[in-house]
Design goal:
- This protein is an alpha/beta fold and 380 residues long.
- The chain folds into 2 domains: 176 residues, ATPase, nucleotide binding domain (Nucleotidyltransferase, domain 5); 138 residues, 2-Layer Sandwich (Nucleotidyltransferase, domain 5), CATH 3.30.420.40.
- 41% of the residues lie in helices and 18% in strands.
- The strands form 2 sheets. Strands 5-4-1-2-3-6 form a 6-stranded mixed sheet, with helices on both faces. It has a 5-stranded mixed sheet with strand order 9-8-7-10-11, sandwiched between helices.
- Helix 4 crosses helix 11 and helix 5 crosses helix 6.
- The protein starts with a strand and ends in an 18-residue tail after the last helix.
- It binds 5'-O-[(R)-(carboxyoxy)(hydroxy)phosphoryl]adenosine and zinc ion.
Amino acid sequence: MKILSIETSCDETAISILEAKGGAVSPSFRVLGDNVSSQIDMHIPYGGVYPALAKREHIKNLPLVLEKTLKEAAAKAGQAKLEIVRQDLAINPDIDAIAVTYGPGLEPALWTGIVLAKELGEKWGVPIIPVNHMEGHLLSVFGKNKGSFKIPKLKFPLLALLVSGGHTELVLVKKPASPRASLGGWMRYEILGETLDDAVGEAFDKVARMLGLPYPGGPQISKLAEERRKTKKQNSFSLPRPMLYTKDFNFSFSGLKTAVLYKIKDLEKSGRKLTQELITELAHEFENAAIECLTHKTKRAIEKYKIKTLIVGGGVSANQHLKSEIKKITQSKVKLFFPTKELSSDNSLMIGIAGYLQYLKNKKGLPKPESIKADGNLRL
Ligand code: KG4
Ligand code: ZN
């Protein structure tokens, strides 16, 4: 079947078309079309994503991204049916279902995708599959943005570390006792722990701002931290690792962010300028502290739940230091999955994958389109 998927939860307008085959055990996919239009440049002056602006940009970009993706898919499928037959999209171009992100995220932004999904669903007479964005990040590790891919047979117990601009959570992924037990999703999820304040990506972005680096700050901090790491120089100060030794699996990044702010103030008070060298050192120490918090709790969860498979997903999973530290704690005992660079940030392919898996389980019980609503705080 062919699934068109839409993602508009934050600042990326993304639409894909996937051809999906096979049952729940080892489904396979072929990418027929995939396009992302990023608004990052628009949000740079605000130092973060500005919801009303995000909504406006999604409304502007969605028709363009849709047309581009349909044309790409038509060419790839070699099928006249997939062509955009009429400008108003009144005729179904051979799509069997529409998957759309309905949360979590910025509600005005989410609605733009949902409204388009409902409009197309009605015109084309196809069902709509509402997808949780975080389940998308979890499944993104199996995808590729070109060609074909399969979801491999997975060993349980399975743990997911989901790290993005809005979330930081350690999730135990469980096989449902019966198909009905997981209606609305691929698996059953138990959030073992999560951030009590800022998400880790948010902390990267805020610290970057303090250091005068542009939004989004994660890649910027990471670049400077890698530079410093290569020099093998010791840092002249250390930053706290909040909640490192608490018995739970929760995180806290707000105190770490504030510690960076105080460090900058102290340095300024003592007459030191925020030189490039100091910025690089702060970036390095901040990254070390944040990643240590993530890996330490992940390691404990792996041990406690005798984890056989670890999935790391979300924007921060692109961080090289996180990747190498996670490799150290898993070694060869735990099968490890990270997304490709393209699929670590927000994209619609992951929504298509999650949509298909949900469809396989629940094709007869999908919600009525009119009941699908944006839920900014949706949980796994
Ligand atoms: O998953 P994502 O694209 O969007 C959300 O759903 O939030 O994640 C975006 C976040 C941003 O905070 C960004 O700074 C962070 O991921 N990020 C990184 C890196 N690349 C992106 N953080 C640390 N290191 C990176 N290399
Ligand atoms: Zn995301």
